[in-house]
Amino acid sequence: MANQSESSGELAKNVDLVGELTKALEGEQFFLVYQPEIDLHSNAFVGVEALIRWRHPQRGVLSPDAFVPELESSGLIMAVGRWALATACAQGAEWHDKGFRFTVSVNISARQFAWNGFVDEVEEVLTSSRFPSGLLVLEFALRTLSGELTDRLTELTQLGVRLSVDDFEPGPSLLSDIENLPISVVKLDRQFVATLSDSPTGAELVHTLVDWAKKSRLQIVASGIEDAEQRQRLQLEEIGVGQGYLFSRPHEAAEIDRYLEDFSIFSGKPL
């Protein structure tokens, strides 16, 4: 009886959360923050990653871990993901109109990617926002990209967008998984970056990844950089771009505007 009661309680919680998430979408409680991506060698501002937050009326601002799994399981990720893509592209177009030329990265869920209308949706968003397709980076988990839908990746690249493998941990088998995919960016997992200095094996894997990336003309982005020592190690490993608290926490667009005003180098052009 206790287990049945606990299960009923969990079900009620899940139903309540789905209801709250639906109201959150309708009530515009979701918002995006943007974390800068920095060239580790020139210190230039080269892009932002759009990240979703929920401004909950009782619990305050919630991070994705608190609600994205439920968005996924309930199917609401489709509507929220569409909103996030459109919002990020509209904001990217606004920055572009101000003369800024940097990429905007948006995370795409497995459910979004599996939808047959996804490529058309991306094209429609780019057209309506007037955001240049070459500045949009779509980030996917590696498991999302494998299987029967690899042709869809080619369709996306034909639109001009760039594709990125998110949360990547280098390894010989994983390199073989991505070598035939039409991707242009590999983003190193933050936990891998955190342990890189203490792991000779990790350093060897990065060497292999960097050599392979050079041959394949791929960009490597390191996420979760928190101190100068990590940055220096990544520079020595010839990693080109990084993001993390060492440079900036994620901020709303208005704060990124102020950040850009204070930045001395922007794609080789003084601000």
What does this entry look like structurally?
The chain has a single domain (30-262), classed as EAL domain (TIM Barrel, Alpha-Beta Barrel). The termini are far apart. The chain is α/β, with parallel strands linked by helices and 271 residues long. The protein has an 8-stranded mixed barrel with strand order 1-2-4-5-6-7-8-9, surrounded by 4 helices. It has 12 helices and 9 strands. It is globular and about 50 Å long. The longest helix has 25 residues, at 2-26. Helix 3 packs parallel to helix 5 (118-129).
Question: Could you list some keywords that capture this structure?
Answer:
TIM Barrel, 12 helices, single chain, alpha/beta, disordered C terminus, 271 residues, 9 strands, globular
Oligomer: single chain
CATH fold group: TIM Barrel
Q: What's the CATH superfamily, by name? A: EAL domain
* Poorly predicted regions: 4-12, 264-271
Span between N and C termini? 66 Å
How many beta-strand elements? Answer: 9
Helix residue percentage: 40-55%
| Number of helices, counting only DSSP H or I runs of 4 residues or more | 12
Which secondary-structure class do the elements indicate?
A: alpha/beta
Q: Radius of gyration in whole Å, from Cα?
A: 19 Å
Strand ordering within the main sheet: 1-2-4-5-6-7-8-9
Output the helix-strand order: HEEEHHEHHEHHEHEHHEHEH
CATH top level label: Alpha Beta
Number of discrete domains: 1
Shape: globular
The biggest beta sheet is recorded as: 8 strands, mixed, barrel
